[in-house]
Amino acid sequence: MKKKVSWRSFLPPFCCGGLPAKAAKRVAAKQSSFTRLSMVDLSNPNSVLSEDLSVSLAGCNIHMFTLGEIKVMTQSFSTGNFLGEGGFGPVYKGFIDDKLRVGLKAQPVAVKLLDLDGSQGHREWLTEVIFLGQLRDPHLVKLIGYCCEDEHRVLVYEYMPRGSLENQLFRRFSVSLPWSTRMKIALGAAKGLAFLHGAAKPVIYRDFKASNILLDSDYNAKLSDFGLAKDGPDGDDTHVSTRVMGTEGYAAPEYVMTGHLTAMSDVYSFGVVLLELLTGRRSLEKNRPHREQNLVEFARSMLNDPRKLGRIMDSRLEGQYSEIGARKAAALAYQCLSQRPKQRPTMNEVVKILEPLKDYQDMPIGTFVFEMPESSPASKGSETPKEERKKVNDGGHQENGHHRGQNHHLRHPRSPNSLPENGVRNANRRPTSSVLHPRGGNGDRRP
């Protein structure tokens, strides 16, 4: 008979047990002058920090919930609260009321429950707690708390009503994201990466992709899923050598070839997402002709040619985008996707270039339709009940309302600022694996 093995049998004890009083005092004293912890701090068996995660993160304003409190939030993981499932495990919508815990405001939350048989494990859960527990920025999703009780590993986040960029950009039968919104999302995501790269202890995100960019109700972008994040190189080191993990189609070529990870690896991945925003196409699409399956290989050469750029721009935009802004964004994507890491811009430079693009106003006013009454042949000047609909295309520029006919009714094209009303939850993501591999038919993979 096969013996059941629990997480507790091979994990360090800091998650699930308390500290002796003397050890707790030593940790608290060490943490009184706060410096960000790294995974090395907690994986070192000789470090007192490895004895208790909750004490190690003292002062980070992260709550350690009990399993009972998690069940209250999710109504015992009710199927009515189920939002989706990814490589980490199932995700539920929950709600924290003001009676659950002193100091916690009432708010909706997203609760991720680690699947013990899934592709991710305790280390990814711990990495997420370490990074999001200590890093605070408007463009990183907020970790409210966690649960580490027996075999259970749970993460509790702020609720992101618009879901992921992947859902908003690629889902069928929905209103397309307007140009200004796409640039707003690109800018927010770029600021998130710039914050990570510029931290006192730089962080390399390593899994930047559309499904890991979450959107709030105003389409502000926030980075999520830090399970593959790594501390940047120390001292004179130029890179971090690590096992190749990530998502095919987004991972930088030099990282895939050598395992050498740098901040420029994130910049390349950002270029892929920016290209997806411009074209409305996924980074990998196996159902397309062979030469078009890899978006970067197919489209990169067209980004610096204004005559060819129009061919690859997302047709769902219906021409409602800034031509100047599109050229600048395409040139930026071209730089980010350079095969030579040193030729890519830093994320701070990316932010400066993107900052003005969402406000460009040189957007053509497309084809519009107006109705004009038809004169009656029987009596001059009179109108018949029947009106002829006439379609006018002025080459992309609307005149100042001066058209023939006494009465006309304009029917304007859909506003580029119209937004979908029903967001999709951030949790509805497809499962992925712990190593780099081609995405399946659904076009995604998970760490």
From TrEMBL:
Enzyme Commission code: 2.7.11.1
Classification via SUPFAM superfamilies: Protein kinase-like (PK-like)
Places the protein is found: Cell membrane
Record-level Gene Ontology MF annotations: ATP binding; protein serine/threonine kinase activity
Secreted in keyword set: no
Domain Protein kinase residues, every copy: 77-358
Database matches in InterPro entries: Kinase-like_dom_sf (IPR011009), Plant_Ser_Thr_Prot_Kinase (IPR050823), Prot_kinase_dom (IPR000719), Ser-Thr/Tyr_kinase_cat_dom (IPR001245), Ser/Thr_kinase_AS (IPR008271)
An annotated GO BP: defense response
Keywords: ATP-binding, Cell membrane, Kinase, Membrane, Nucleotide-binding, Plant defense, Serine/threonine-protein kinase, Transferase
PROSITE patterns (UniProt xref): PROTEIN_KINASE_DOM (PS50011), PROTEIN_KINASE_ST (PS00108)
Biased composition (Basic residues): 403-414
Basic and acidic residues biased stretches: 383-402
GO cellular component, one term: plasma membrane
EC top class named in words: transferase
Domain of life the protein comes from: Eukaryota
Residues covered by region (Disordered): 371-447
The name this protein goes by in its record: non-specific serine/threonine protein kinase
Origin species: Cucurbita maxima
